[in-house]
Amino acid sequence: MIIEQRRLLAGTTQLALRPNGLYICQRNSHGRATLEFEMPYEEVLPVRVMRFRTTPQLTWRPLVGLWFAISLLQRLLPTNSNGQLSDAAWLGVFGFGGLLIALYLYGQRNWWQHVTLGTSRTNITLADRSAERASVDKFARALEARTKAYLREEYANINPLGLIDTQLHRLRWLRKLDVLTEREARVLATRLTGRLDSLPLHSMGQVLESPYVN
Question: What is the pLDDT of residues 135-174, one digit of tens each?
């Protein structure tokens, strides 16, 4: 599964699910890769989707600049014999206003609304466009499902003849990442050690070992 987003002047961001990891590539507006790597599935979980908005903070500098621009336009725009703005001047004013509105709408769509796809290793931030929200959410669910399937296939197999402690640690790791359910982890641990994972037994004031089932 692949998802790609293009942003004006910022280039493209591409995410892809590969057999062994999450592929991430960012390219500039000239198509040159500025960031490219593959994150192993072992470093992905947990997967998070976070949406937020950043609005530009107005300070006195842009306000002063706007005042100077308006003053300059008043001097440069042509006027008629009555000192009023000509038709061409009004056309320029409306055109400039339309440009500002278009710039604001573009900023709302591409600059100020963001969605972050978070993993345990890194965060990938994209523009939060309404037309792409469903595909981003779908990709996040597919990433989580693919990661859990990969970890289950690679690390959930046990061998009672191997190193017990290492395999128990691996089962606890899978349980912590929610790859295995509590019941699955308990069953695998019992098959591995031959002991029931239960509360310790007490008899005559002494703690007894858990019974073996193998």
Answer: 999 999 999 999 999 999 999 999 988 899 999 999 999 9
Contact 171, 184 (CB under 8 A): no
User: HSE on the CB side for 177, CA within 13 Å?
Assistant: 25
Q: For residues 30 and 172, give the distance between their C-alpha atoms in angstroms, rounded to a whole number.
A: 46
d(CA 144, CA 8): 30
For 88, the token pair is 């061409």
Model-level pTM greater than 0.85?
Answer: no
Q: How far apart are CA 142 and CA 195, in angstroms?
A: 36
Helix (H) or strand (E) holding 76: helix 60-76
Burial of 10 (0-12, 13-18, 19+ CB in 10 A): middle
What is the C-alpha separation between 26 and 125, in angstroms, rounded? 11
